[in-house]
Amino acid sequence: MQRASLRALTLLTVALLCCGSTAVAQQPAEETGFGKPIEKVVQKVSPSVVGVRVVESSEATGERGTAIAKKTVLLAASGLAISKNQIVTLFRDGVPEPEKNGKISIEVMLSDGEVYPATWKATDTDSGVTILNLKDAPRLKKARFSRKEPKQGSVVVAIGTGEGMSQSHHLGIISGPNRRLRHPALPRLIRVSLSSQPQDVGGVLVTDRGEIFGMLALTFSDPNREQGSLGRGRKVYGSSTNVTTTGGDNVVFAIPGDLLQAITKQLVKGKDVTRGALGASFSFVRRTESRWSKEGKLLAGVVVEDIEKKGSAITAGLLPGDLIAKVDQREMRTEADLYWFAERVQYGAVGTKLLLQIYRTVGMGQAVKTIEVPIGKAPKRAPQPY
């Protein structure tokens, strides 16, 4: 599957280099590994994807001393329609609010090339997810999110914003559906090998059903690099927030659609994004590394590393070194279960009680306990790098 997908990616990359990045050559589904003709998927989703730029207006003096209106692009990004007049995008690093500076404005370009003004509504500073209200524009086509989890080796289309805010389309392959970059607001990201152009700024990942399952957040020009920069918005002046590349395949990370929806749901209501916490840190231990056992078989699970002096974990009686084998009857067998547990805590309602089955070392033996731990409220943090 992956060999066929890589061959398809190479074929499409050649087609893009010949035809330009704003059009995708139509290929039979059996050649691309995509379930449907790419052109039809692009046509279906494109009306929901927009270009976003933050501009600063000023006046310059002409040759004869006349005043000339001038616009400077401060930030550029891609956006996604989540209602008839609202879009979600990724902004961080001190995005200015137009209400606080009359010279700053936000412009949105629709798929038909028309540009409309927008106003800032809310930003989650932990993740950079931002909601904008569109003014005086026709009804947007609301994007549809996928309910299925992406699978490794699946072929996807990325629709984003290229130079000049025009749309660009690229084919990619999911190389890691569950990746963790130790970011406090995003416990799970999707890793994609994508043929993206250097001028692209963000975008969304689309299935062959025309459904969204992720928004691009990080771009690496070298998959062996430990650090990358956020593709939430390209600073045209000043330090760039996108990795400068010379073409070829990039390693891209995307915020999963379900996490994006959980954040936007709170922002649309005009609320600060509230995240849950237990007041403890955890790690995953494989069976081959475990010292806990059940009926003679070693157990994998989530290990309690450190516990804060104040929080739900210490109040409920958790101790460092405890092995969590089950959370609400779900067994913690793989690292994917640890990610699920982290999301369950961070995006669960504060006060919700989690039922944990734990194994605790007692002397030379072990004890099995069941503990109820309520989800507490996480403290607000300063924006963290991805």
What does this structure look like?
Helices cover 15% and strands 40% of the residues. The protein contains six helices and 24 strands. The strands form five sheets. It has a six-stranded antiparallel beta barrel. The chain is an alpha+beta fold and 386 residues long. The protein is elongated, with a radius of gyration of 23 Å. It has helices at residues 2-19, 29-32, 38-45, 257-268, 312-316, 335-346, and strands spanning 49-61, 67-81, 86-90, 104-109, 115-123, 129-134, 155-161, 167-179, 189-195, 204-206, 212-220, 229-230, 234-235, 249-256, 276-277, 280-285, 293-294, 297-298, 301-307, 323-327, 330-331, 353-362, 365-374, 376-377.
List keywords for this structure.
386 residues; six-stranded antiparallel β-barrel; 24 strands; alpha+beta; 6 helices
